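pasting for the record
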Amino acid sequence: MRNDPGDGPTRPVPGPDRDSPTRPVLNETTAEETTARTAGHGAGHGADHGAGHTAAHADTATTTAGAPTARVRSLTARLTGLVRSTFADTTPLRTPAYRRLWLAGIVTVIGAQLSVVAVPIQIYELTGSSAYVGLTGLFGLVPLVVFGLWGGAIADAVDRRVMLLFTGSGIALTSLALWVVAASGTGDVWFVLVLFALQSAMLAMNQPTRSAVIPRLIPPDQLPAANALNMTVVQVGAVLGPLLAGILIPLIGLATLYLIDAIALLATLWATWRLPPLPSSAPADGGNRQKVGLRAVVDGFRYVGMHRILLVSFLVDVIAMGFGMPRVVFPEMAATTFGGSAEGGIEQGLLFAAIPLGMVAGGVLSGWLQRVRRQGVAVVVAICVWGGGVAVFGLTGSLFLAVLALAVAGAGDLVSSVYRSSMLQTVATDEMRGRMQGVFIVVVAGGPRLADLWHGPTAEAVGPGLTATLGGLAVIVGTLVVVWRFPEFLRYRGPVAGGTAG
């Protein structure tokens, strides 16, 4: 409490009390003395009362002046809390190692998307055949499956920092090779496809390793926020990369896109170089280094079967993508339902962009994800939102509603992906995380291709809209059946600060 003018040592002290033994005893008191004493007492009392009264007024004035300030501070705190609970949680960015990787990833993801656009265009320029362009699916998928699984096993056996440096350098070198081929005009389509397959193999080994590193850098309770940040960056790159490629190719040429990709990768290599050593946590087998052959890959699948939370997380993702991804019907619906052209146009562009845009919006507004503990229930609800959005898309004849429904579906897919990735990073032990991330990469890459296989023939038989709707409804029914069979998934709770998952 502060010292006011009428408090403590600043207060006037009246003379000795009348009954005090220090007071001299007089037999007579003159009128003048009595008057003087009375005047002195009155003056002292008046000064004390006046000082106290002044202090009371000062307190009142201070309180009155401070009231608006307190209200402003309270309003500011509420607005800050609302923003933090609404927009993406950036707490993981306080960790320097994670922050460097994430910031470098922004540049690298956009650069990678430039190459994704450049490869099919280059192959079409070389051959003039869409059939050869279609081979990029085969040359990209096979290495992704094989080296995704094998690369995950390697990531569990070696220093993950070294693994990231090796595979990142490999991706950069293949981009440089593609640049040389495109700029010089040498090489044929098969050489380009082989380089593309080699780059896909390096990417397949890099991605599970990178995901397995994250839990070593940040606390478990921050994993949902970190995964939301990562996935938002990926989706932003998926939207901006093709747009930039379309703008840059007429200005600087197709070959330069590969060079930009290679240069952008330097940012990630720098961030990786700054990481601390991340040696394997796997126990040594008789003092020897852990083997990374077929047995290690099989052990990964066996591990999934023994942990039902992981098993269900993979099953529901296969159901969500295998039944629900409607991209095959976009061209036909753009032309027949929304009045566009099957060869392209704004209608088709909006349909293809709607899902990633919804995922970006979901990532930006992901602040609430960190507060959800019942993550199993959240995954089921999010996948049902995805399925419902796809089903509505198939039913509507309005382009606006179709794009909105797909965007809502994309936001649901982001929420599902965030929590499933967090489960994987939390439930799996560190010595198994690489292999689990390898399985995750295969599931994520393979699910949409399963949807492609049946959406095409079914759309030919019953129409594209009904096909999409049936797929969306199958997602909801299939997901509910799986969690009915494995109810422990619904009981799963994510970790809290200083705690564990359960």
